[in-house]
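@channel sequence for tomorrow's demo:
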Amino acid sequence: MDITSYYETISNPIETKNTVKKSRFIASIEEIKNEEEARLFLKSIIKQFPDATHHCWAYKYGVGEKAIEQYSDGGEPANSAGPPILQAIKKEKVTNVMVVVSRYFGGIKLGISGLVQAYRLTALRGLRAAGKAKKMPLREFIIENIEYQALGNIMQSIESQAGRIDDIQYREIISIKAYLPEKCKKWIAEIVKNATRGRGKVQPGGIRWYRIQ
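structure tokens (generated this afternoon):
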């Protein structure tokens, strides 16, 4: 993922229902980060609704050119279920999400156009009920060799940049694990240098995605 940007995903996992000509459609929606999580989610839904006639699904994770998209018609006619579900995900402009629509056949055939509309509408309703959340990438920084008199200044500086303080080790010399936007790399090094009179050390680490709204 592009570490200079943010992405939108669902706010909450959800399950919604829709009935079309006696067929029952159940949309189960979950946030995912990779193919393995998608596989496990699908497995859990099949276990939850073992007697459903079809389990059709689509997912998307990642952003930009590196985004991965997959779908399955789950035994329905080709392109009548999976693509409409994926279309709903794209319409809502979310990623890192999987939608599984389980169908219980009600005895009335819907036709190709009817299936497309039913799966797309069921997925859309579920996605809108799940809401949206923005997530942004923050870089891990391990800050060491901090004296007690410098701690307050450094903590306030981190919080002023929408940073997160993950852990503080209180020993004779303090260390902090914090997360900050990538753009703050040079800035936090300068803050620590000034607050500790050059004694402090800043070691950048990996990326973690945090919900910002």
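heads up for whoever presents: The mean pLDDT is 93.
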